[in-house]
Amino acid sequence: VSRAGSILAVEDNPVNRKLLVRTLDAQGYEVTPATNGREALEILRGGNPRAFDVVLLDIMMPELNGYETLEAIKSDPALRDLPVLMISAIDELNSVIECIKMGATDYLPKPFNADLLRARIGASLTAKRLRDLELEYLEQVRKVTSAASAVESGTYEASGLEDVAGREDELGRLARVFQQMAREVRAREERLIRQVEELRIEIDEARQDRQVAEITESDFYQQISAEAEELRRIIGMDSDSSPDPG
Amino acid sequence: MTVEPVIDAAALDQMLEDTGGEAEFVIEIIDDYLENACALLADIGAAVSAGDAAAGRAAAHTLKSTSASVGAVGYAAIAKEAEEALGTGDVARARDILPRLETGFPLVEAALAREKTRLEAAA
User: Fold this and answer.
1) pTM value?
2) How does pLDDT run across B84-100, given as a tens digit for each residue?
3) Can you tell me the distance from the alpha carbon of B26 to that of A228, in angstroms, rounded to the nearest whole number?
4) Residues of B with Cβ-Cβ distance to A22 under 8 angstroms
5) Interchain pair A89, B58: CB under 8 A
6) ipTM
């Protein structure tokens, strides 16, 4: 069964962590618990950076606190787009504001309110999915522009655009038109190469004919031919008979 | 001033609903809380004796947070007072608050024991 989203829940206190994990599980999320910021970063950096959809991050923690962890996430290019919801006591608003300035998406007050938890995670998941789509789109635009450069440098491979061409939107249409045009350009190039090759052969043949003509029309050749004719006449051969081997 | 610790039964009922409806889980959380709170109380006492405001504040912060989670609202308020005092480095004030935390804890314990009985009966 597909879960609603994958969440990394970072909370040092075992009671609150257990409660948070159970509440999220009951809401249909796949939850991975971490006991402090250092452990959270190890989990995030140890696998696929896109394995998690949201991070729930407590502020006051030993080892690496919420601020330090948030700063590390937001300064890591592989993690910075991951939504981070801060967990804090309701009387820690100044800390929360500081975290939001640092890039946190929102916050959740403790004790947890299950409805608010669901609503804020839902909003973060929506934002994350839109961002993922945007990143995928930008990556595919990059593939099309790379393909254009490859056409220019003669290294284009049509297979590099297959996934983009499979899209049903305007970018997919652009990729399909591009593939078609690239195929036509390739076919024209191959046709021209064949024509050039054929012309080269004709030129070579003409050059050989001319060289033969130059030789046979030279005075020296004429003189040799006349002498050969005279020799054949002297030994009693016709010019078009083979010499007697005996 | 004495503070009567009160357990907000509605908070535990809400916890039961939010976590899937199994009373055993809520009872487990109560037991975990009591064990954790006992240790935190000792940590606050040790930090106050040693004049270590930062360590005392961290323990009081957690005690405040977990107490509120199990509905011990009054006890969470005392823990918050201790947290604030230690947050400003006022160890002397925290030392005055500490007896209220210590005398309040058995009352929280007793109230939660009653809640466990109630939850077990309803399960």
Assistant:
1) 0.74
2) 999 999 999 999 999 99
3) 122
4) 19-20, 25
5) no
6) 0.90
